[in-house]
Amino acid sequence: MINRVTHQTVQRSTLGNLQQNLSKMADLQAKMSSGKNINVPSDDPAGASDMLRLRGEQRAQTQFARNADDGNGWLTTVDSALTSSLTSMRRARDLVVQGGNGGLGATSREALAAEVDGLRAALLEQANTSYLGRSVFAGTSDAGVAFTDTYVFTGTPGSGVERRVAENTSVRVDADGAAVYGEGASSVFALLETVSATLRSGGDVTSHLAAMDSRFESMLTQVSGVGARQNRVQDAQSTLLETQQSTKAQLSAIEDVDLAGIILELQMQEVAYQGALGAAGKVLQPTLMEFLR
């Protein structure tokens, strides 16, 4: 049996093919102008799903990097304050040893006591160090300072400021002021106040050396802990940088076009379209208007 082919059938088939060619050219031009392989999810449903997943990972990585940068700022501030405090404590200890010299007169002892008072004030200032308006030694407290002028610790006991630097990794970025400096009558501030009073009264100031050494060791322990935590944050920053670059490369492989390949494909499609137009001009039935010309 022979199928009947009419001019109308040929016209429809030819116009349909031309329309497909135009549609393909339009898609290629859209990809070339946008630089993206996937402009709408229907272009590649599987690829679009992967893109959404990778973009979600990118947002999480960006937040983790922001947290790590903030945490590093906190820990740097804490480390700087503790380093200054250790320097002040070393100087205070030297003054105590110097004050133990029984040959010092009242004027010399007064001068030593005045310097100790200055070191105590410096320590109190260092203990109230803040980062972005928050005390780095007061935990989650919003009191503004970690210690009052009467050496009362205003921090929240047992609390700590943490930053999540990876999916399952959080790092504490502050320090416990009570553990570093003590509090109230047992604080380093009260100790230095007692030292200066002993110097002025002519007593045996070296009796305070053991207490000063104990407080110095507490500060050293905290400095060590802060250093270890800062290393974790910096390691997380390095890992995040590598992960972000990897995720960006994966996303680019899915959505970015091969510009040279697209241009070549578009040129080939244009040639095919021009050929189809030439063939259509010979196949399509002339219209009445063309006869009238």
TrEMBL record:
Residues 210-269 form the Flagellin C-terminal domain. It comes from the Bacteria. GO terms for molecular function: structural molecule activity. InterPro entries: Flagell_FlgL, Flagellin, Flagellin_C, Flagellin_N. Keywords: Bacterial flagellum, Cell projection, Cilium, Flagellum. The keyword Oxidoreductase does not apply. One of its GO terms (cellular component) is bacterial-type flagellum hook. Residues 6-141 form the Flagellin N-terminal domain. GO terms for biological process: bacterial-type flagellum-dependent cell motility. It is found in: Bacterial flagellum. Belongs to the bacterial flagellin family. This is Flagellar hook protein. It comes from Cellulomonas cellasea DSM 20118.
